[in-house]
Automatic annotation (TrEMBL):
Protein function: Transcriptional repressor of xylose-utilizing enzymes.
Protein name as annotated: ROK family transcriptional regulator
A Pfam family it matches: HTH_24
Source organism superkingdom: Bacteria
Native organism: Wansuia hejianensis
InterPro entries assigned to the protein according to its UniProt record, in alphabetical order: ATPase_NBD, ROK, WH-like_DNA-bd_sf, WH_DNA-bd_sf
Keywords: Carbohydrate metabolism, Xylose metabolism
Amino acid sequence: MPREDTQSQQKMKEHNSMLLLNMIRREAPISRAELACRTRLSPTTVSMLVEELLEKKWVVETGAGSSGSRGRKPIMLEINGKGGCIVTVEIVSNGCICSLYDFCLRKLRSVRMKQSGQMSRDIIEEIRVLLHEQRVALSRLVAISIIFPGIFEAETGHILFSSVIPTELLERDLPDKIRKGFPKVRVIMDNDTRMMTLAESFSEGYVPGTNMLAINIDEGISAGVILKDEYDDIKICNALEAGHIVIERNGRKCKCSNQGCLEAYCSVNALLRDLNEQAGVELPYEDVWGSEVNAESLAKAAGLYQAGDPGVRKVMGEYIFNLCCGLFSIANLFDVRAIHIGGRIMALGEHFLDEVRKTLAEQFRFVKSGEVVIEQSHSGYETIRQAAVRTAMDLVFSSH
Ligand SMILES: [Zn+2]
């Protein structure tokens, strides 16, 4: 057989194998017959490929399912949770969080690490400890997924910039160094906002086939969009620099050195500053990502807002108008039908969301009779990590 034919046959086999594996992941428990029916592969092909997946221990048989029409109970298949593990490494403002997951997205353990001079060395050491403690053989670790709040080179994962972590604290070649510590493990770098958006698309609140904007409002503002494609089933996540959309020409100076950015008006600390300056409150705040001081002050502001404090309400009215300017721009650009708002700002509660809906409808004439749904984000830190695990599994499974 010519080499090209052998290669394309091999590719086709890998493709089909991944198709089955992903269907088992989503639909388990599922029988071979059902797999053949759903994927339109022949029963012989399904049997052969499933046999290989069983050999690799990625899939297990779970005994007989419910009785079929002919009375014979089929053997069901599901993902073998113990088949392999994935580590997520979230880079946060003062260190990182390493978590170990099995193939069934079950978290086995999570450890928070403080910032140090040599993060890569500490991360490698911590991952070894995690595996040892959980009695997972190194050969079962298939991927390490680094979740980074900033931008990096797509090919190499070399860190370029983060607006939330000072550059001097970052090792530019972090992925390379971790690869050296685990030469046989796939090391992946992904953006935190992209993972947040992906997590939102896996949540119950996402209506398949809808263009959706997921926006997180903390000390910074990040967002991603899920776009339906012509087949209605492929999701594309674009991490947007939503915080730096200009909503006011020649407006407030932003830390990106531009003027009038959404973030300069609508970050959590911008809101706290406005409340202090214009509503006569004394709520301490700082320009630090993930600040506890800001969280406490925001909770107090939420109390005053919900109690109807007139000064706070006035500032909130302006805040919401500015936020809607940003939402309106992005939503029109991508023709989104759903906006999911998350992050620390949601401490302001359902009343805040109601006001956002009202402002978009009345002042922007945007939300007509349920045309655009605005709701609270469903994803949290845990679902973001799980999205990273799923992405890593897709990559690993597609290359075997
Ligand atoms: Zn800016």
